Amino acid sequence: MSIDRVDLRMPDNIGEGVLKNHAAIKTPWEKLISYYDAYEYGCRHMAGIAATFFETIRIFLPDYAERMEELCKTNKMMMKMGFNGGFEGGFAAVHARNNNIHPFMEGGFISSLYGDSGDERLLMNGRVNDFGTYRAEKELDTCPWDILGSEICRISPCGQQGIGECYAGPKVEFNMPEARGCGDPQCRLICENREKYPMPEREIIWETFGPLATMDQIKVTPEEKRYGKHESQYFRKATNFMCRNGLSAEFNHMVGWEGGPYSNFAADYVTYTYQMMMRDGKLTQEEIDNVIECVFEACGKMMFLDCYAVKGLRDYLGVPNDIADGRVLGAYIELLLQIARTEYKIIAFNKDEVIYDIDRVRFMRRSPMLIKAYNALFYGMCKTLVSPEWFCWEETEGVEEGRWRIKIARKIDKYCR
Predict the structure, then answer these.
(1) Is the pLDDT of residue 22 over 90?
(2) What is the pLDDT averaged over residues 329-340?
(3) Burial degree of 267 (CB within 10 A; 0-12, 13-18, 19+)
(4) What is the C-alpha to C-alpha distance for residues 397 and 360, in angstroms, rounded to an integer?
(5) Between the chain's N and C termini, which has fewer beta carbons within 10 Å?
(6) Can you tell me the distance from the alpha carbon of 44 to that of 380, in angstroms, rounded to the nearest whole number?
(7) Rounded to 5 degrees, what are φ and ψ at 404?
(8) Which architecture does CATH list for 61-251?
(9) Are 103 and 97 in contact (CB under 8 A)?
(10) What H or E segment, with its residue span, contains residue 346?
(11) Which pLDDT score, from 0 to 100, does residue 86 have?
(12) How far apart are CA 77 and CA 203, in angstroms?
């Protein structure tokens, strides 16, 4: 007789038509996490993943200037590759259509439109204070990624610069004179047309905090009128709960989710740089893998080192009091899989073992290093969220291509770390 390895769960469609249906994430114990809470959690979680990746590259490149040179050079190049061709075709042309960019518009200031809609998806809530051929100014009141430090605040203008250079017309320069990642109360991204506002040529690629020619034109929104973390366009009644840019392009919640909680924003700034450094012979895959594993494993252990953190997650997921095994970590993993809208099969979910078979390609968001990071993170989390007797690892034997199999169970390993 075969034994069912999965604890009983209510079918997803039970009660359909009896009560109102709501967009929500459901834990194994019927706890619902609302759409907005899942959206916010997903953005903040990916900010934490990105922050941890930034810690890894600080190990390889401890010198700030050298690190910023590599990061900014790589990510400007990646943006130029992605938007190569401007209006003529491919990815850039699709984005131009989606943003309602008119054929008569030309010049690097067009890049501001991509940044504006991207900000709203990422819960970087704010407003456009100026937008034109000669100048653009975007003011941000919130940023889930403000924990990353100054590096991301320098990289972002470089990326915008790279996109802008893919379009014909007057040259512009992007700077971020204020940045929440540096401790400022707001972020402020300013684009200036260098024909209209001449300035000395930028000699160092990562010096993107200024100086500016139009400091006297800056418009500062009073604190009482600034948006809070709940006030992205996607969650405001005044915008009909969708994102709109200045050209009346509209972006629905599917676009928002894919470019927000699901995105690998900021983490790929580091993974792209690693790829280029491996190509140039500056690092090896083995060196990168080792540092990723060590740093993410330590982060996982620290997440639930204290009892209040364990209790907080258990309450958040609705874990019954009598469950204190691998199912607790399994439920958290399912939360992340649902946020990433990733298909998965539950092979086992009981007091002895938890096994998931996951769509690897979808979850890794174009970055194989992300799988490496999560394997280490989940392993570390298991030690403090559950018990040192429990392990979380990836199984590879007998797993079909394109799948990611995670197992959580008791194990004894005399060489574990």
Answers:
(1) no
(2) 97
(3) buried
(4) 15
(5) N
(6) 19
(7) -125, 110
(8) 2-Layer Sandwich (3.30)
(9) no
(10) strand 344-349
(11) 67
(12) 17
